[in-house]
Amino acid sequence: MIACLAMTAWSHAREATTEESKAPSAEAGKPEEDPELAAKRKEQEALAIANKLEAERLTQATNESRAEVARLKLERELMIERVALEDAKRQVALRKELAKLEAEKERIASEGELAKARAEMLANELKVAQTEAALKVTRLQGDITRFETEEKRDTYADSKPVYLKDPLRKDGTLVISDRRIPLNGLISTETADFVCNRIDYWNNKDRELPIFIVIDSSPGGSVMAGYRILKAMESSDAPVHVVVKSFAASMAAAITTLAKESYAYPNAVMLHHQISSRVFGQLNLTQQREFHEESQRWWKRFGTPIADKMGITTDELIKRMYERSSSGDWTEFAEEAQKLKWVNHIVQGIDETSLTRDPDAAASSPKAQPTGQPAALSEQIDTEGKPFVWLPRLEPKDVYFLFNSDGYYRMR
Q1: CB 165 within 8 A of CB 210
Q2: What is the pLDDT along the chain (412 residues), one digit of tens a residue?
Q3: Does residue 294 belong to any structural domain of this protein?
């Protein structure tokens, strides 16, 4: 294109030169003109030529600029095409990479789904196994519980305690409910705590139904402890009935005789005597007299009401005691004791309705309810081979009201 513009400018310049060379020959035959006018015409022609040349130059420069612009456009188009090509290549590579990633993603997802399915299958198998094992264990536990329940149920009787306001039936049978308090062995401070607390408890449960103090065998004991039991019996709203099954002596006999209601088997043995005290340590005459007076005061508090119930004086009671035995121990079977008013009723049978649980099962059970009876005294053997127990220490003003003919009970 640049070459074409140059050729055009050269052609115009050549034509102008030819016209100038021809002009004089055309005007040779004409008359000679004014020099000034001729000069101006020449100047005009020169200017025209200069303008023309300048126009040609301008045209040439314009053509060169256009050519440069066209070249730059071509280069730009080339660059755009190259960029587009590179972009296309990148797009293709990106698509390939994306396709590869997508394929990898699908593969991983597929493997994940497969692993998940396997895990679910294994979990389901585990659940099935656990369920089967749990069912088996549940069945076994159910069997064990059933067996234990049946065994435990077998230790209980079907009957329930019988509560009667008048517990002595016409056939001579005494009906004892679970409102019973055992009183056995030596009567001590602990025994009084045990009996008195239960009298209070059964009163709080019901103040009309009778409470039963059941004596299997008791030689008596502390006068202070026995007195506490008697006062608890007297102050009880619920009637307290005392029952002697085998043997009630001394303080235990006093509790039986002074009860408002008392019962005994025909061959039960009751024993009354004076308070007997043993002095330990060295006492002067004054101290011995004081000790004797203290014992007399206690005897008055127990002997007097016993004699009153029998309808005799205290002196007559003491006299009759020693008529029976040189030791003063007056012993009678219950049938004779009833005539002496030591006991109110002779019973031919006792219906212990509170024993609704197998005693053997209760004794072997670690959770068996304790009877609450004070612990038995520890038996020992002396140097002569005789068994004995040490008596608990008494309070300073207390004395023992105890039958101890064989010296089984000893004081330190």
Answers
A1: yes
A2: 444 444 444 455 455 444 445 445 444 555 667 888 888 888 888 888 988 888 888 888 888 888 888 889 988 888 898 888 888 888 888 888 888 888 888 888 888 888 888 888 888 988 999 998 998 898 888 888 877 776 666 656 667 899 999 999 999 999 999 999 999 999 999 999 999 999 999 999 999 999 999 999 999 999 999 999 999 999 999 999 999 999 999 999 999 999 999 999 999 999 999 876 554 455 677 766 776 677 778 788 888 999 999 999 999 999 999 998 888 999 999 999 999 999 999 999 999 998 877 666 655 554 444 444 666 788 999 999 999 999 888 887 788 888 888 889 988 7
A3: yes
Q: At what angle do helices 285-310 and 223-235 cross, to 10 degrees?
A: 30
Residue 295 is assigned to a structural domain of this protein? yes
Show the DSSP H helices in 155-167 as ranges. Answer: none
**Segment 295-304 long-range contacts (CB within 8 Å, at least 24 positions apart):** 295/399, 298/223, 298/399, 298/401, 299/274, 299/275, 301/227, 302/223, 302/226, 302/254, 302/275, 302/401, 303/274, 303/275
Q: Please give the structure tokens belonging to residue 164.
A: 């009667």
Helix (H) or strand (E) holding 333: strand 330-333
Q: The CATH number of the domain where 404 resides is what?
A: 3.90.226.10
Number of domains in the chain: 1
Domain that holds residue 311: 173-359+371-410
Domain assignment of residue 263, yes or no: yes
| Domain assignment present for 73 | no
